[in-house]
């Protein structure tokens, strides 16, 4: 039966591949990969040989139509990205949307994602978290984006690349202040994995002082904004006014 499988792959350590993901990749008629060379290496490691097509940001729309036609003809398609879960700051949403529109089953295979991996080790209360993904590359727009979530009572998760990590931490420090708590997760599941928590001032100094800490891939988990200080007017609205209303 034609099905689009959305398959998570490891974010570093290949042993994080799930047995079910291997079953589906082995059973698929075709694998839609972000970069066929990257996925080719993964398949080679697991001894799987399959036809692949490239589904990237710039061709996702046109390729989605072609793949839906193949699904309608009865094929099984497995979609993967270079690392982690497709559709999470990666191509995937348009193909899944096109499959839904055509009435084709979309079956997710859960596995690694830098998002959940970093959150799980952050030690923050994850009851409420906002996944922001990549911030804008330029200083002004990045500071505007940080300002947009600065006061939210939710954790905020950011993806960052090595060549921008210092600029990004400096802008977070500028907008959120030196004392906001943050967890930095670098090279998750890989040899030089670093997970460190502290204030923005501490982590900026830590990364600036060691060029090794500026290499690799990063997830930043920013603690929720502290509750705003109550003003007398707030106290009147929320505490005194209901009490007064109860008076005979
Ligand atoms: N779809 C992927 C996922 O589910 O995590 C994310 C793809 S996005 C293009 C790549 C970004 O994810 C990197 O720039 C980094 O911020 C984060 N990332 C991916 N692998 C990571 C790792 N092993 N350690 C830390 N961050 C990682």
UniProtKB/TrEMBL annotation:
<comment type="function">
    <text>Catalyzes the 2'-O-methylation of the ribose of cytidine 1402 (C1402) in 16S rRNA.</text>
</comment>
<keyword id="KW-0808">Transferase</keyword>
<protein>
    <recommendedName>
        <fullName>Ribosomal RNA small subunit methyltransferase I</fullName>
        <ecNumber>2.1.1.198</ecNumber>
    </recommendedName>
</protein>
<feature type="domain" description="Tetrapyrrole methylase">
    <location>
        <begin position="3"/>
        <end position="203"/>
    </location>
</feature>
<dbReference type="GO" id="GO:0005737">
    <property type="term" value="C:cytoplasm"/>
</dbReference>
<dbReference type="GO" id="GO:0070677">
    <property type="term" value="F:rRNA (cytosine-2'-O-)-methyltransferase activity"/>
</dbReference>
<keyword id="KW-0963">Cytoplasm</keyword>
<keyword id="KW-0949">S-adenosyl-L-methionine</keyword>
<keyword id="KW-0489">Methyltransferase</keyword>
<keyword id="KW-0698">rRNA processing</keyword>
<comment type="similarity">
    <text>Belongs to the methyltransferase superfamily. RsmI family.</text>
</comment>
